[in-house]
């Protein structure tokens, strides 16, 4: 009778009966692993999901918020200034901005001016202009704000600057170049002459803040500006910030001499505070004469500080 085949493993001399590690098993199952050139690398694909309509809308909203941050700041500063909401803690708007936001006077007013220009661009750019990149900071609008162009012209300047920048947001330098070209093309001769008497009109010029009504003598005439001597200093201003007083030659000469007298008093470092009241009063009285009492007061103060004055003829 034949015996059934044995189920016992054949023992091979030198071989261990312990199970092989998983790594060894993997090697046996991957016949190509012994050859590095034929190794297989498994890459897991990551699906990039498109933005939903809601996400796309949110992204656009946030991007605009970032781009228009300077606009919000300018609008807020404008309201703080116009409604004098700083008055409970600070004497002036400039002091408030410096201590509260660490803004210099020029920086605060630049933000306000840039806001006005931005709003003009929104209003005067044509319908297709909605695709035109809009400013993202006040520096790009600095020269537009200082040029004081009409709102429609500001929009034209911005369009030209965008085109010059390759349909991208232009730098402040590019905007300045366009502004200079337009102003040169529409150049108007400066109507003022040295020796004439003018009144300062501050408008939106921060350098003239508090100088409304000051009169002065034109000492220099440039292409777009004049230097004017007043009782408390020299101011270089644009011609649109001046109003000419149409006076006779002898009246101009009287006010020129009066300006010299007031400036001499202002240079006295040890002067009494009451002298400043006199200087400010006469410095805003744009008339080619002094009353009898004004003349006596001015003469008395000059003698007090040993200032000799001889009327020029």
TrEMBL record:
Region (Disordered) location: 1-38
Protein name as catalogued: Uncharacterized protein
Polar residues: bias regions: 28-38
Domain of life: Bacteria
Keyword terms: Plasmid
Start-end of Basic and acidic residues biased regions: 17-27
Compositional bias (Basic residues): 1-11
């Amino acid at each position: 009778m034949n015996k059934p085949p044995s189920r016992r493993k054949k023992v091979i001399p030198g071989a261990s009966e312990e199970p092989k590690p998983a790594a060894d098993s993997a090697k046996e199952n991957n016949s190509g692993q012994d050859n590095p050139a034929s190794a297989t690398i498994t890459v897991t694909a990551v699906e990039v999901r498109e933005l939903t309509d809601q996400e796309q809308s949110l992204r656009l909203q946030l991007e605009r918020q970032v781009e228009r941050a300077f606009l919000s700041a300018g609008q807020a500063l404008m309201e703080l200034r116009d409604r004098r909401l700083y008055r409970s803690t600070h004497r002036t708007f400039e002091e408030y901005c410096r201590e509260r936001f660490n803004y210099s006077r020029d920086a605060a007013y630049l933000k306000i001016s840039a806001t006005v220009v931005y709003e003009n661009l929104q209003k005067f750019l044509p319908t297709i202009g909605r695709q035109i990149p809009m400013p993202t900071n006040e520096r790009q609008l600095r020269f537009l704000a200082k040029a004081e162009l009409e709102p429609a012209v500001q929009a034209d300047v911005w369009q030209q600057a965008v085109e010059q920048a390759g349909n991208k947001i232009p730098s402040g330098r590019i905007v300045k170049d366009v502004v200079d070209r337009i102003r040169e093309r529409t150049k108007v001769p400066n109507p003022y002459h040295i020796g004439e008497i003018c009144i300062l009109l501050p408008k939106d010029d921060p350098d003239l803040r508090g100088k409304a009504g000051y009169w002065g003598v034109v000492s220099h005439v440039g292409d777009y500006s004049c230097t004017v001597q007043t009782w408390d200093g020299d101011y270089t201003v644009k011609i649109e910030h001046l109003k000419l007083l149409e006076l006779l030659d002898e009246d101009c000469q009287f006010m020129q001499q009066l300006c010299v007298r007031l400036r001499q008093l202002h240079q006295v470092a040890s002067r009494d505070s009451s002298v400043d009241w006199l200087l400010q009063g006469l410095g805003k009285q744009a008339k080619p004469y002094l009353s009898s009492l004004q003349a006596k007061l001015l003469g008395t103060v000059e003698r007090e500080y040993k200032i000799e004055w001889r009327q020029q003829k």
